[in-house]
Specification:
heterodimer, A: mainly alpha, 10 helices, B: mainly alpha, Rna Polymerase Sigma Factor, Chain: A, Arc Repressor Mutant, subunit A
């Protein structure tokens, strides 16, 4: 990770401090400065200050080397003078990290619903699974809870209307096997 | 913090009431926007007016800037629309080129590049600056020249330059900084930078 760090264990001489600031501005212009240093440095780039002058010079050098050599240096002053008549904006941006809890909550809710539906569905040992299993045997059905068989018998006609043929056959076999 | 993140942070600050932060964005993208506009409009005064209007429109529209696109991409669109409207109100047509051709920094359409987009004075200043920067780069020690060239012209990250030059990232950072300082020292007399504006 890119980083320009400063040693906080000692107080550097003014010339060293200035050089460290200029070095940080250089890295900032390249987008290679750590967040923790970039934010306070950006706040210090006030018009007329040495850091701002550094920023202006380094940007100019880069643009000139890339062939962006035509300039109207007074344009910035003209724009800023024109903006004095404009209202100050007060429309803070939504910060990306504030969206994360909502995303996590949504993901957790989806996971909970999915798990709930899955766990509420038929388990491998449930009577419905037995009925749907074409390999099931009458013996397996016989091990099902006793109150299921009257239910299946009572709903046999209805089951024929909605259940696919193999399962229907199984239902009949099961009922026949248990003597009902 | 990447270049795009820096722009987003500056936009955030402007939207929180810090107008001066917008000046940094103007300083940063002024020349790029001027180059774009010079491909659509010839007259230097008109280019400057359209550029100013573009930045003011951008300022007013900042509350709508969501940060999905890079700031310059957004500014570019405002600039093109402002130039189109400007020309339309004067009954003039835009050059018949694609956006891609207008914004192609590598192979600009020579028919569209205005040779002189400023006043005679600003043109002279531009030529002096180019000469000073060129001479200063040529006079740099080899390792500084290579580092600044890889960064500014090739657009490499510090990590890529460190790999290319087989040196630590900290050395790359220092070489680029020293190269910039050496070039800036040659530019200051031309720019008339007062001594008290620098450390």
């Amino acid at each position: 990770m890119k980083s320009v760090t400063t040693n906080s264990m000692h107080t550097p001489a003014p010339a060293q401090a200035h050089e460290a600031d200029a070095l940080a501005v250089s890295a900032l212009v390249d987008g290679e400065l750590d967040d923790a240093l970039a934010r306070p440095l950006l706040r210090r780039l006030a018009p007329g200050g040495p850091e701002r002058e550094c920023f202006r010079e380094y940007s100019l050098i880069g643009d000139t080397l890339r062939g962006l050599d035509h300039d109207m240096p007074d344009l910035t002053n003209r724009v800023m003078a024109a903006l004095e008549g404009e209202p100050t904006l007060l429309a803070p941006m939504r910060k990306p990290h504030r969206q994360r809890p909502a995303l996590w909550l949504a993901a957790a809710a989806v996971a909970a619903i999915t798990w709930g539906l899955w766990s509420a569905g038929p388990s491998p040992e449930s009577p419905a699974s037995l009925a749907a299993n074409p390999n099931a045997t009458p013996a397996m059905a016989a091990n099902a809870p006793g109150n299921v068989m009257p239910y299946l018998a009572a709903h046999q006609d209805f089951a024929q209307a909605v259940v696919s043929p193999p399962e229907m056959r199984f239902t009949r076999v099961t009922l026949a096997g248990t003597g009902q | 913090m990447s270049d795009r993140e820096i722009d987003r942070l500056l936009v955030e600050r402007v939207r929180e009431g810090d107008k001066q932060a917008f000046g940094l964005l103007v300083d940063k993208y002024r020349r790029k926007l001027l180059r774009l506009l010079s491909r659509m409009v010839r007259d230097p005064d008109e280019i400057e007016d359209i550029a100013q209007e573009t930045f003011i429109k951008a300022y007013r529209a900042l509350p709508q800037f969501r940060g999905d696109a890079a700031f310059y991409t957004w500014l570019y669109r405002i600039g093109v629309n402002t130039a189109k409207n400007y020309l339309a109100t004067r009954g003039r047509a835009m050059p018949t080129v694609s956006d891609q051709a207008m914004n192609d920094e590598d192979e600009p359409d020579e028919r569209l590049v205005a040779k002189d987009i400023g006043t005679p004075e600003s043109e002279l200043l531009s030529k002096q600056m180019v000469m000073a920067v060129t001479e200063a780069v040529e006079a740099l020690p080899e390792e500084l020249r290579e580092a600044i060239t890889l960064r500014e012209i090739e657009g490499m990250s510090y990590e890529e330059i460190a790999e290319t030059m087989a040196c630590p990232i900290g050395t790359v950072r220092s070489r680029i900084f020293r190269a910039r300082e050496a070039i800036a020292a040659k530019l200051r007399p031309i720019l008339g930078t007062p001594e008290d504006r620098r450390w």
